[in-house]
Design goal:
Layout (H helix, E strand, L loop, with lengths): L5 H6 L7 E2 L2 E2 L1 E2 L10 H13 L10 H21 L7 E4 L2 H16 L5 E5 L8 H10 L2 E5 L9 H7 L4 E7 L11 H10 L3 E5 L11 H4 L3 E5 L10 E5 L1 H5 L11 E4 L4 E3 L13 H17 L1 H20 L4 E4 L10 E4 L4 H10 L2 E2 L1 E3 L4 H6 L5 E3 L8 H16 L2
Parallel strand pairs: 3-15, 5-6, 5-7, 7-8, 8-9
Antiparallel strand pairs: 1-2, 4-10, 9-10, 11-12, 13-14, 16-17
The protein binds 4'-deoxy-4'-aminopyridoxal-5'-phosphate (PMP).
């Protein structure tokens, strides 16, 4: 039974009508960023034509409209993640900024020399570097959960790393380089048993699978709007309400204060205490429209459809002679990382571009996990719900063509 018609869905995305080198664009770079449906583009345009104002402070009609739209978007994010309260939803620039916020504010305040932070081998640089910087500032130790040859977290090895010095376990829900889905609930449960807090990086998960923060019980969760069919420059930090309110803000300024004198400043409660200055109001509203769009298709339908597409693609790619798939976990989302014998990854990427196919080649900002597999880079097609079996057929045919023409 059809969950939805991906060819009809495609029509909602104006950029997917582009032609590249005379061919219809096939966008398989969804792990880097996703394309935007007309509904999101129109919503942002509507905001600037009918609602634009700064929020929260003026007495006039447009301030009320802008504030309502912004706060409605916050509620959409809350419902999308099944968070308990909108007070737990902080708008930031993206996943990177959210992680840096936690490292700079919560980390600087709560961690001290000798404490330990656990990350996984799968992490994006955005979930490694801020912790390394914090570790250097504070004299902390960074420990790494290893993965097996399929790219799956080794839970037994993880359990051995946990100890009374562990203060934070921070890891991705889906690997951007391999596509591995990690056992997030179990990892969080074990961390909590050891008395550690947890940060879950949802940059690659929110567009592919249902995220239920109350069930997962993560202390912090981050994602970027642009990877879930929303605009760039807007993202979300989720934090449990008590945790946010006991954490000192990292940036000071307007909007985030209750009272200021030259001697002393009182901060607002969350989320305002972490939203200093004028934020990205229009794009928060655009993110709300993107979530509406995803909800209309249904995240469970999306998950099921993409699972089918991923299997379809995996089976065809496996048969291409000389193709090495990296990341072979049974539980994966969206990502197909590979190398092709006899060709550099750049050659493959260029050849696909000639056919109108957009993939990423390189280290995907996740060098440690590629090096785990002895690689410096891969070719990485990554799927979204607007991709079709025909897109995959064209990808695979283009690889055979490249090999024939060698
Ligand atoms: N974490 C993961 C797993 C990612 O894939 C990315 C983006 N590639 C990020 C974090 C950082 O996201 P952003 O660049 O949007 O801040």
């Amino acid at each position: 039974k059809a969950l939805f018609d991906a060819n009809l869905v495609k029509k909602d995305f104006p950029i997917l009508q582009e032609r590249i080198n005379g061919r219809p664009l096939i966008w398989l770079d969804n792990a880097a960023t996703t394309q935007k449906p007309r509904q999101v583009i129109d919503r942002i345009s509507y905001f600037y034509q009918h609602e634009n104002s700064n929020i929260h402070r003026a007495a006039h009609e447009l301030a009320a409209r802008a504030t309502d739209a912004y706060e409605a978007a916050r509620e959409k994010v809350r419902a999308f993640l099944n968070a308990g309260s909108t007070n737990e939803i902080v708008f930031v620039r993206g996943a990177t900024e959210a992680i840096n916020l936690v490292a700079k504010s919560w980390g600087d305040q709560h961690l001290s020399a000798g404490d330990e932070i656990i990350v996984s081998n799968l992490e994006h640089h955005a979930n490694i570097v801020p912790w390394q910087q914090l570790a250097a500032r504070k004299g902390l130790k960074l420990r790494v959960i290893p993965v097996d040859d399929d790219g799956q977290i080794l839970l037994d090895e993880y359990a051995k790393l946990l100890n009374p010095k562990t203060k934070l376990v921070t890891f991705t829900q889906v690997s951007n380089a391999l596509g591995t889905v990690t056992p997030a609930k179990k990892i969080i449960e074990l961390a909590h048993q050891a008395g550690a807090k947890t940060l879950l990086d949802g940059a690659q998960s929110v567009s592919h699978l249902r995220v239920d923060l109350q069930a997962l019980d993560a202390d912090f969760f981050v994602f970027s709007g642009h990877k879930v069919f929303g605009p760039t420059g807007i993202g979300v930090l989720y934090g449990k309400e008590d945790l946010l309110n006991e954490t000192q803000p990292w940036q000071g300024g307007g909007n985030m204060i209750k009272d200021v004198t030259f001697e002393h400043t009182q901060f607002h409660q969350a989320p305002s205490r972490f939203e200093a200055g004028t934020g990205n109001i229009a794009d928060a509203v655009g993110l709300g429209a993107a979530i509406d769009y995803v909800n209309r298709l249904g995240i469970d339908n999306i998950n099921q459809y993409e699972h089918y597409l991923l299997l379809y693609a995996t089976n065809l790619l496996k048969d291409v002679p000389g193709l090495r798939l990296v990341g072979t976990a049974p539980d994966k989302a969206s990502v197909l990382s590979f190398t092709l014998k006899g060709f550099t990854n750049d050659e493959v990427g260029q050849a696909l571009n000639k056919e109108g196919i957009a993939v990423r080649t390189g280290h995907h900002c996740a060098q440690p996990i590629l090096r785990r597999f002895g690689l410096e880079s891969t070719v990485r097609p990554s799927l979204a719900f607007y991709n079709t079996c025909e897109d995959i057929d064209t990808l695979v045919e283009s690889l055979y063509k490249l090999k024939r023409n060698k």
